[in-house]
Request: fold
Amino acid sequence: MPRKAWLVADFPGNKVSTITADGKTVRTLIETTSPADIGLDRKRLLLYVPLFTENRVEVNRLKEE
Reply:
């Protein structure tokens, strides 16, 4: 995940993306069904993604960049 970027859950787009602070670069991190929100554990580099229509939470390990 790039430094100084926003993490965005895109519910209708079925993905979680990063957007750089200047808004010029958008990168899809995860494609998944109905991401409702996100939680980030920076220490362990874990991304928690509640899946609204699946009634469960997905845990993804992020790569350090």
